[in-house]
Amino acid sequence: MASMLLNSMRSSPVSPAWAVQFAARSLSTTAQLQAQVLFVNPSPVQTKSKKSLARPGVKNIVLVEGVRTPFLLSGTTYSDLMPHDLARAALQGLLHKTALPKDAVDYIIYGTVIQEVKTSNVAREAALGAGFSDKIPAHTVTMACISSNQAMTSAAGLIAAGQCDAVVAGGVEFMSDVPIRHSRKMRKTMLSLNKAKTLGQRLSLIGGIRLAHLSPELPAVAEFSTAETMGHSADRLAAAFGVSRVEQDEFALRSHSLAKKAQDAGLLEDVISFKVPGRDIVSQDNGIRPSSMEKMGKLKPAFVKPHGTVTAANSSFLTDGASAVLIMSEEKALAMGYKPKAYLRDFVYVSQDPKDQLLLGPTYGTPRVLERAGLTMGDIDVFEFHEAFAGQIMANLKAMDSDWFAQTYMGRKSKVGTPPMDKFNLWGGSLSLGHPFGATGCRLVTTVAHRLKKEGGQYGLVAACAAGGQGHAMVIEAYPQ
């Protein structure tokens, strides 16, 4: 696969080997994608009830409620805050929406990616700020773009093990202010200065400082193991699977159009209003901006220049935001008078080559989680996939629709199949709603629960890719109405 991808970048946008498999499989045309906008607010239809995934002797774990702050473009209204401010707002919104007693939670877990050094355990700081009891343990996890997915499944594990009955999970990311360090040589000098005991030692150390030592170190935007940015990986992946620039722009336009319709229809009910100190009340995501194919087509490639196909318009944008969900054992939820939104059922984590298959988590995770649950693609009523890049989504869809890819790279006899677009990300996705790295997983799961109720479905599937070549997939079952 590596050689094919390399050849694709050296010669033409699509290598011949991949083109034979995928070029004829255009999964999107302007008419097809624009037609999906009509499905944003379908009338509730009760589908034929399928078997429940409840198992004898296995504790049912439920999603009681999920909220999030509005997701905002970095550098806008949240710019003067800190990450724990957003996480605290999400936790307070969850408390307000559920009327949950602050001492009724057994544990709190938050996901984040780029940590603020002053609040390295942001879960604990946000929980204390939100007024939770200081007797409630809290910890922070990081797993790139599936950090809050890991927070949720860790919560489910604590409940399944009998350690807890009620856990709050969530995620936060704050790209308006990221930690920037001095260079390593400058850090060593400063640490030595701190230990110097005489004026002569201090002057000697200061005299050794050079202009180059003052160059700052920014947070890494590339994979540590490959030194390649995710945007470059997305561009190569799109080329390998024969995903055209037009297809990517069409999908991005679809995402923004559906998100706008969902926002206008009041379907994004997980969004809470947040009074930003010293500024306005924020109540909506601000990155939803439907454009036109003509305007999008004028943008230059953002990563692989001049022939790349990934642009600012068909990529997710840097986002500030936080999310929070209340997860309980069904028994505890009912005893406290709650009506759960959904059951959290089977889930898997996957990992593959971070160089050539960095963003194929959904392709690998989807068949595995379906097999664990005893379901097929045809059983799924609602699909919510993380949209890192339009090219990443389209490449996954083509890979999922390929027997050849399944047999060659996944060791499977046949393809898993492609999600029907009339069930796929119908309220927008990360391309339009925004993608605060650590917070997106909770948004995906909460959206599935809300869509299942709105559309009368029974099973939903969440899938996401993440840095490091990792991925996550989960099956959610609607709670009986």
What is the approximate shape?
Answer: globular
Main sheet makeup? 10 strands, mixed
- Residue windows where pLDDT falls under 50 for at least 5 positions: 1-20, 23-32, 34-41
Order of helices and strands: HHHEEHEHEHEHHHHEEHEHEHEHHHHEE
* Rounded average pLDDT: 90
Alpha-carbon Rg, integer: 23 Å
Q: Helix share of residues?
A: 25-40%
Distance between the termini: 47 Å
- Class computed from helices, strands and strand pairing: alpha+beta
Helical stretch count? Answer: 17
Number of β-strand runs: 12
| Fraction of residues in β-strands | 15-25%
What's the SSE blueprint?
Layout: H1 2-10, H2 16-22, H3 30-36, E1 61-68, E2 72-73, H4 83-98, E3 107-111, H5 122-130, E4 138-141, H6 147-160, E5 166-173, H7 184-195, H8 199-207, H9 230-240, H10 245-264, E6 274-275, E7 281-282, H11 293-297, E8 319-329, H12 330-335, E9 342-351, H13 361-373, E10 382-385, H14 390-400, H15 403-409, H16 430-433, H17 440-455, E11 459-466, E12 470-478
Parallel strand pairs: 3-4, 3-5, 10-11
Antiparallel strand pairs: 1-8, 1-9, 2-8, 5-8, 6-7, 9-12, 11-12
Task: Explain the overall architecture.
By secondary structure, the chain is an alpha+beta fold. It is 37% helix and 15% strand. The chain is built from 17 helices and 12 strands. The protein has helices at residues 2-10, 16-22, 30-36, 83-98, 122-130, 147-160, 184-195, 199-207, 230-240, 245-264, 293-297, 330-335, 361-373, 390-400, 403-409, 430-433, 440-455, and strands at 61-68, 72-73, 107-111, 138-141, 166-173, 274-275, 281-282, 319-329, 342-351, 382-385, 459-466, 470-478. A hairpin with a 3-residue loop joins strand 11 (459-466) and strand 12. The longest helix has 20 residues, at 245-264. The radius of gyration is 23 Å and the shape is globular. The N and C termini lie far apart (47 Å). The relative contact order is 0.20. Mean pLDDT is 90; it is low at 1-20, 23-32 and 34-41.
